[in-house]
Each structure stands twice: as structure tokens, then as C-alpha cells.
Design goal:
10 helices; Rossmann fold; alpha/beta; seven-stranded mixed beta sheet
Length: 220
């Protein structure tokens, strides 16, 4: 059984669930529209540029979770899945997951986006396991703080290595699919790195290193 690892945002999804959740909060008037949108867009641009301060971003992104009950948050997420995530679903991504499933591989999503946002998406995609940035929960409420190592850049490698040790898996024959230069540390670790609808920096590196470049968005 090989490990088939997938980034989520802009890889398996035709968009970014983290940024879209921020837009959804603005749309639902959960946050200050102008201020929150400006910050959300700024952090997303930093992410695309590979310059994101993950702790600063998480302080921003997790704060709204601390201001509502789990029941209310789950109600919002149900609507978020319907209105925002379903339109991001990619038939070719579902086919790729199915191909690995039929090959007997273990399907693992590893994403910087927090678990509140991504756990229902992982379930929708039918993967075996999800590694995500974990928001802290105390007494049944989110605190607005992060728990443990954020699942971002080198943090993805750290979290994966701990998961491998805990679950008796290894990276022999492993795959990792990603669109982002932020994922270079993990792409360099697996046996089969694959660039998916990649950003400019990752595309150049993939060409230089003869990594496959694929698209899950084209209709051909």
C-alpha cells in the first residue's frame, strides 16, 4: 500500500477553501466586511507569494471561531459547503482519488487550512485521513489559538513524519500532489512529486527536475 498525499486548496479543489471561508464570513455579515476582506485578501496574496507569516494569519483566521458556539459554526459550515465548496469540486480530482483508491493506496490530505474548515471537505472527498492545522478547543469552544504545529511548509513535513511514526506507514512509493511552492519541503520528500495546476515558481522547479505537471481543471 503506497501513500497518496494530496494538498487540498487549488489542488483537489478548484479554489482556496481558507480564503473562501473568509469571503463567506463577510457575505454572511459575521465579520466587519471592509476590514476583514482587506486582511483576508492580503494574507492570501502573501500565501501565493510564499511569504505568509502563518502565526499572524492563524491569529486572524481562527478568531471568528472563538466568537460563536459549535452549533452555530456547524450551521454556517453546512451552508459554506453548499454554496462555496460544492462549486469547487473537480471531476478530474475525484477521478484521480478513485484511481489511487482502486490501486489500494492510502489517501491522505495534508493542508495548512484549519481542521474546522477542511474536515467536512475531506469527508466529502472520501479520503482515508486528513492532516490539517488544528484549532485549539477548550470546554467545547474554539479559543482562537492554534494547537500544535501548523500544517504549513516545513510544518507539513513535521506533522507527516509524526503521523507516519504513529500509524505504521512509510514513504516507499509515495505520491504528493500540490499546486504551491509552499509545499516544496514535502514534494522533495516523497518518491513521486506531482505539480498540479502549479504556481509559476513550482512549475519552473517541476520542469527543471522533471516532475510531472498535470491539470485537474482542464476539460480535455
Amino acid at each position: 500500500m503506497a501513500l497518496a498525499i494530496f494538498d487540498l486548496d487549488n489542488t483537489l479543489l478548484g479554489g482556496d477553501s481558507d480564503h473562501s471561508w473568509g469571503e463567506f464570513l463577510v457575505e454572511q455579515q459575521i465579520v466587519d466586511a471592509k476590514e476583514y476582506k482587506q486582511a483576508n485578501d492580503r494574507f492570501y496574496q502573501h500565501y501565493l507569494e510564499g511569504t505568509l507569516d502563518i502565526h499572524e494569519f492563524l491569529g486572524f483566521a481562527l478568531r471568528p471561531l472563538s466568537q460563536h458556539s459549535m452549533e452555530r459554526l456547524n450551521q454556517l459550515h453546512d451552508e459554506f459547503m453548499r454554496s462555496r465548496i460544492e462549486p469547487m469540486m473537480l471531476p478530474k480530482a475525484m477521478l484521480l482519488l478513485q484511481q489511487h483508491r482502486e490501486a489500494g493506496d492510502f489517501l491522505l490530505i495534508i493542508t495548512a487550512t484549519n481542521r474546522f474548515v477542511t474536515a467536512p471537505i475531506g469527508e466529502r472527498l472520501g479520503v482515508d485521513e486528513l492532516l490539517a492545522t488544528d484549532p485549539e478547543v477548550i470546554n467545547g469552544r474554539y479559543t482562537g489559538e492554534v494547537s500544535g504545529t501548523p500544517c504549513f511548509q516545513e510544518g507539513k513535513v513535521e506533522r507527516l513524519q509524526q503521523w507516519l511514526a504513529d500509524n505504521n506507514h512509510d514513504l516507499e512509493g509515495s505520491y504528493f500532489y500540490s499546486d504551491s511552492c509552499n509545499d516544496l519541503p514535502l514534494l522533495e520528500l516523497v518518491d513521486n512529486p506531482v505539480a498540479v495546476d502549479a504556481d509559476a515558481r513550482l512549475s519552473a522547479i517541476a520542469i527543471e527536475r522533471n516532475w510531472p505537471l498535470i491539470s485537474l481543471r482542464d476539460t480535455a
